[in-house]
């Protein structure tokens, strides 16, 4: 058996971390785009689409991400495709991220005071113009801190993809732990790497939120 | 001997000195009104006497015991001196009766039955005997303030500090609260009150203290202070209020 | 798509699922009660506690909130025995949930404490209550009431997150689905069923927690 030094372990973990980062980015960007589409349907989709989006959000927020990963993995398989873990992981995480971001952003749009709608309506703006020029710019500003904050959940969420066999940081941790019989060190390092990824995002979210609160008070 | 003795009291917030050496004595049974413009330091003075603000210089002595900053001394002081706040500060999750009972049970370790009997007596005293089970948000501002008075009285303090207790009330509710305070004064309770109610100060108080820029600027019996203000500052203050 | 759904196999497996549901409920009961208790302590420690305690609580909260639950679980179950601290899988899962919920609820409850008007602290002090008595009798209940919906949501999130404890062989609802699919090769149906049960549990748990809130905080909100 080869002997693993601490440096070897760390090198392997850092190598696997790139997949955690890539999957996080794909999920966040893909989920953001899908979430934006869902948001439009949720706010402006009337009686048919708005409830559909609502149910979508309820389903994804009310069930474990792990189950969503399993269902994506085995569900896509039902179409007769041989599903690689990365595909199932990306699909599930994008759908999951979209549900949460839609809900966060809906809250931000609704946080724009009613008077803004009334004022822009009284200026003769159409619904789309109101959205485009008055409401969305304000909502966007409120949305930034919680959106950055949610990115932490996405990074942590990618850890579950190790369970369906995607080799990222957590999976590498399991493999290395089994190979080295040093679970304490390995999982400790894995945790620290996740922390190094997530903590700056958390701090940024907190910083942005504080800045916004100060700006609002003046 | 005076019940409350304040000597050379100083208090600063950062660079800003709010109290610049206050000397004041309050005898047992005295009713002292502290008046002055906002920012003159009168509320700060009261809060220092209750230990809610740490002092930067001088001393405060209550019933012979000097106020120190540690927990035990503060609690001993607060058992002797009750305080009523402008914003009532009732506990929203407790009924009027429970508000009055809480400190008796927790601080004095009074049994529930005795605490409840005391609470009922005190609520009766402020005319709210039938509101024992009402939550604060079911009471008017005037009623809430009367519950707050009952709550302080239930601890059987030697003196009560009243910090602008009618300032947050709608005008039509001021009378019922002042009526209660008038009753306390008549029963011989020692009172130190920051107030804007000049007519009340004139009728009920035994002494009026006018504060200006962190100092006691003028003091004396209300008849004298209101009829013959000696300093131009008090003259102008009274002119504005009256 | 030519796949035909088949739930007929279920007849033989419902006791497995029932035991799994019972374990999931047991875990969230323990995790919920002890996690919130830990959260209250940490919220107190960080907002009002002694100066030396504050950075320690902050460190704990940040460490937990910025690492995946799965890794926390693995660290406790696989890592700690190496340091001489051995737990069986159910104990490890319970501990991981308590620690996880403790950190999240600490932040939520702290927000409630910090939203308490200063006058409430002063009123407590002026009645000669000690700082701890003021926290316990005056501050805590209204603070919990303010943040109760957020706390309820967090408990539901932790319950859903507990699906991964099957990875250390805790026989919970996910474990039941894994077990059933490995025997019947009906993976999609097995996970579909367990997902539906999780959804029902989430809705039920949220409903019960909000009802509990109504019982704990019977009065209306209003005066300060």
Which sheet architecture does the biggest sheet of chain C show?
A: none
Number of strands of chain B: 10
Q: How much beta of chain C, percentage-wise?
A: under 5%
Which structural category do the helix and sheet elements of chain C fall into?
mainly alpha
Q: Span from first to last CA of chain C?
A: 62 Å
Oligomer: heterotrimer
Q: Separation of termini of chain B?
A: 35 Å
* Biggest β-sheet strands, sense, barrel of chain B: 6 strands, mixed
Give the largest chain-chain interface (CB within 8 Å): A-C, 40 and 40 residues
Rough outline of chain C: elongated
The CATH H-level superfamily of one domain in chain C is: MetI-like
What is the radius of gyration of chain C computed over CA atoms, rounded to a whole number of angstroms?
A: 21 Å
The side-by-side strand order for the widest beta sheet of chain B comes to 6-7-8-3-9-10
Structure description:
- The complex is a heterotrimer of chains A (218), B (242) and C (224).
- Chain A has 218 residues and is mainly alpha-helical.
- Chain A has one domain (6-217): MetI-like fold (Orthogonal Bundle).
- Chain A is built from eight helices and no strands.
- The mean pLDDT of chain A is 92.
- Chain B has one domain: Rossmann fold (3-Layer(aba) Sandwich), CATH 3.40.50.300.
- In chain B, helix 4 (112-125) packs across helix 5 (141-153).
- The longest helix of chain B has 16 residues, at 171-186.
- The radius of gyration of chain B is 18 Å and the shape is globular.
- Chain C has helices at residues 14-47, 53-65, 69-79, 89-114, 118-126, 131-161, 173-184, 187-216.
- Chain C contains eight helices and no strands.
- With 224 residues, chain C is mainly α.
- The A-C interface holds A 59, 62-68, 70-71, 74-75, 77-80, 152, 156-157, 159-160, 162-163, 170, 173-174, 177, 182-184, 186-188, 190-191, 194-195, 198-199, 202 and C 1-3, 62-63, 65-72, 74-75, 78-83, 156, 160-164, 167, 174, 177, 187-188, 191-192, 194-195, 198-199, 202-203.
- Chain B: It is a peripheral membrane protein.
